[in-house]
Design goal:
Helices cover 15% and strands 43% of the residues. The protein is mostly beta strands. The protein folds into four domains: 127 residues, Immunoglobulins (Immunoglobulin-like), CATH 2.60.40; 296 residues, Transglutaminase-like (Coagulation Factor XIII, Chain A, domain 2); 113 residues, Immunoglobulins (Immunoglobulin-like); 94 residues, Immunoglobulin-like (Sandwich). The strands form ten sheets. Strands 2, 4, 5, 8, 9 and 10 form a six-stranded mixed β-sheet that branches. It has a six-stranded antiparallel β-sheet with strand order 19-18-17-15-22-23, with helices on both faces. Helix 3 packs across helix 5. It is an enzyme of class 2 (transferase).
């Protein structure tokens, strides 16, 4: 009788363990390219030497051998398009086959059929998901270090660093790349990207396409960005605690999810890349330039009270979050492999779409900003100069006076979560040489030769050209960094910045040169979004005093709660406190500007639960919050999620008066082993960003 396949066992538990894919919550087999996996084929009779048996792997709508989308693997003829198959053993009516896909095979969903003579057997759940493989030395995403793979590929939780350079804090984020339908959502995005099969072999193409598809601009991608402060008809960007709900909703509705800001785009892109098998991390840069002119300067305009004005096209964001994906760049000269910056926040178009990267981090550091993709843009985000202008009314017209140039202010404290530890790692040195070093100057000269028109020298001590607002170009000599009097300004808070309390800050002015100096100080306090947009003016101070150098003077700046609480309660976004100071020495005309952003400080949420629990055995988790502030927190919502423990849950808590304690409990059933994390976030009208997390070990 003719040979027929009657069944196929995908040996899922053994294969997924070996391929590090056992965490995916999906009934199909998920494997990584370039590594062998086994399948057990059942037949209607014993296999004879003359029998013809082949496994056929097809990808796409209409798989064909000559297009490379159909691999027909015969045990006796090993290699086909870099794929290999061998007969491990046969006995009775079964044969065990080992299949190794090519380490540069297109990633995606493959249909597996068994062909015996003219018979074709199509198994149920015969779709196999093939991913990138950081464990395979021949795959371009290969990563040698085991701990790094555990973090950047397999860790489904993490932190995104936000706040300001002065006060960085972590926002726990659930990536959840293994949760229900997340892999299918990523496969849907791959299909939607219209990448050809050849393009799907290379993570550079895939990561670029995903940076475009994670934002909704121009391709109805996953998340719709909004910085409007009005999030009716959607979820406020502050209210997400992970990517899972977002990707599940997108996959179900195929419509963009409302709303995101930079950390949401970065969190979702991180999930997508890790899910597809590309090592990836979220990267936060503090004081990040959004330079619309590609001229490497960001102009900040202040009025005579020292208040920042919202009139500039370019801006400095208190922080900006993007991603680094790990790969060899086969399209570039040697030496530019490793981390590549990708950014899905829709800022500027690149080749006609809102996409950014992959840009080699090494190219940013060395100033090789001609390399694809978007390296000039990324370079400017971490290397621009900040130029301060004073806007004065002269005969009823606005006139612009340049007061200072800050050359070491942009691109500070570049941060990501440390490998295997719940703490921040500073990776600024991967992006930049030390400020002021010889290497930094050489890198900058290199970058300027590609960005600036020829003939303009880099910023260090030479005249540079800046576009004034009026459109006329005037040559400007940057201030000599050392003023004649050694003028220096420091800004800090003298009391904790709790909402509902007076904001108590101090501006310290120092002079280091001997002599009697008269100093005019202007200071202002404002509320601003993290994008640098001013939301409210809270107060100003003007002082004139004498200093006998070397000495210092501390000027207090105090803002009453009434001046800001109404604004704070009416805003949907988290805001920062911005203090700007301008000091001028009358005798020498030395001028100096300094600005510092600070965040409000909040009481904590505590999580009570056991340290360990057993698989499928219930335990109780309690969330406790005491309102230690002097204000009632209105419309409080507690959002909680524990991957592999319980689904995203929201508790409405109403108003929490000062001194009151809120307690919520949830019954948890762990469904996955190992260390699991529970994330909680409390939001109200007055405060947006209290979050916490706690780990628990789940055992058999």
């Amino acid at each position: 009788s003719s040979l027929k396949a009657t069944g196929i066992d995908f040996l899922k538990s053994q294969n997924t363990r070996q391929h590090h894919t056992d965490a995916y919550n999906i009934k199909n087999l998920v494997v990584r390219r370039g590594h062998p996996f086994q399948v057990l084929v059942s037949l209607n009779r014993e296999l004879r030497p003359a029998d013809k048996l082949s496994l056929r792997f097809g990808i796409g709508e209409n798989p064909m051998k000559n297009r490379g989308s159909l691999m027909s693997l015969k045990p006796e003829r090993e290699d086909f398009n870099g794929w290999k198959i061998s007969l491990v053993k046969k006995g009775g009516k079964e044969c065990l086959l080992s299949v190794t896909s090519s380490p540069n095979a297109p990633v995606g969903k493959y249909n597996l059929h068994v062909k015996t003579g003219t018979n074709i057997y199509k198994p149920e759940n015969g779709v196999i998901y093939l991913l990138f493989n950081p464990w395979c030395e021949d795959d371009v995403v290969y990563m040698a270090n085991e701990a790094e793979k555990n973090e950047y590929v397999l860790n489904d939780t993490g932190y995104i660093y936000v706040g300001s350079a002065y006060s960085i804090y972590n926002r726990p984020w659930n990536f959840g790349q293994f949760e229900d339908s997340i892999l299918d959502a990523c496969m849907y995005l791959l299909d939607k990207s219209k990448l050809s099969l050849t393009e799907r072999r290379d993570p550079a193409n895939v990561s670029r396409a995903m940076s475009a598809l994670v934002n909704a601009n121009d391709d109805s991608g996953v998340v719709l960005g909004s910085w409007s402060g009005n999030y009716i008809g959607g979820t406020s960007p502050m209210d997400w605690i992970g990517s899972v709900t977002i990707l599940q909703q997108y996959y179900k509705t195929k419509k963009p999810v409302k709303y995101g800001q930079c950390w949401v785009f970065a969190g979702v892109l991180n999930t997508v890349m890790r899910c597809l098998g590309v090592p990836c991390r979220c990267v936060s840069t503090f004081d990040s330039a959004h330079d619309t002119e590609e001229n490497l300067t960001v102009d900040i305009y202040l009025n005579e009270k020292g208040e920042k004005l919202n009139i500039s096209f370019d801006s400095v964001w208190n922080f900006h979050v993007w991603n680094d994906a790990w790969m060899k760049r086969t399209d570039l000269p040697n030496g530019f492999g490793g981390w590549q910056a990708i950014d899905s926040t829709p800022q500027e178009q690149s080749q006609g779409r809102f996409q950014c990267g992959p840009c080699p981090v090494k190219a940013v550091k060395e100033g090789d900003v001609y390399l694809p993709y978007d390296s000039k843009f990324v370079y400017a985000e971490v290397n621009a100069d900040r130029v301060y202008w004073l806007v004065k009314k002269v005969n009823g017209k606005d006139k612009y006076f340049k007061i200072a140039t800050e050359t070491q202010d942009i691109g500070k404290n570049i941060s990501t979560k440390a490998v295997g530890q719940n703490k921040r790692e500073d990776i600024t040195r991967e992006y930049k040489y030390p400020e002021g070093s010889k290497e930094e100057r050489m890198s900058m000269q290199r970058a300027y030769s590609f960005i600036r028109p020829s003939g303009l020298m880099p910023r260090s001590g030479y005249a540079s050209t800046v576009q004034g607002l009026g459109g006329n170009t005037q040559p400007l000599v940057p201030n000599e960094p050392a003023t004649k009097t050694g003028l220096h300004i420091e800004i800090k808070n003298t009391e904790p910045l709790h909402p509902g309390n007076p904001l108590e800050m101090a501006i310290t002015v120092k002079v280091s040169t001997p002599g009697n100096w008269t100093i005019d100080l202007t200071g202002s306090c404002q509320l601003q979004y993290y994008t640098g947009k001013v939301q409210a003016n809270l107060g100003t101070t003007k002082e004139t005093f004498n200093l006998e150098g070397p000495s210092e003077m501390q000027i207090p700046l105090k803002i009453a709660p009434d001046a800001y609480m109404k604004t704070l309660s009416s805003m949907e976004d988290e805001v920062l406190i911005l203090v700007t100071a301008i000091a001028e020495v009358r005798e020498t005309k030395d001028k100096l500007t300094k600005e510092t952003s600070m965040r409000f400080q909040y009481p904590p949420i505590t999580v009570q639960m056991p340290e360990t629990a057993r698989l499928y055995n219930d335990f109780t988790c309690a969330f406790i919050f005491k309102n230690k502030l002097n204000v009632t927190l209105e419309n409080c919502k507690l959002l909680v999620e524990g991957l592999g423990i319980f689904k995203m849950t929201t508790f409405d808590q109403g108003d929490i008066m000062p001194g009151r304690i809120m307690k919520s409990e949830i019954i948890c059933t762990p469904t996955r082993l190992g260390e699991r994390k529970i994330v909680a976030k409390l939001i109200s009208n007055q405060i947006k960003g209290i979050s916490t997390e706690k780990g628990i070990i789940i055992t058999e």
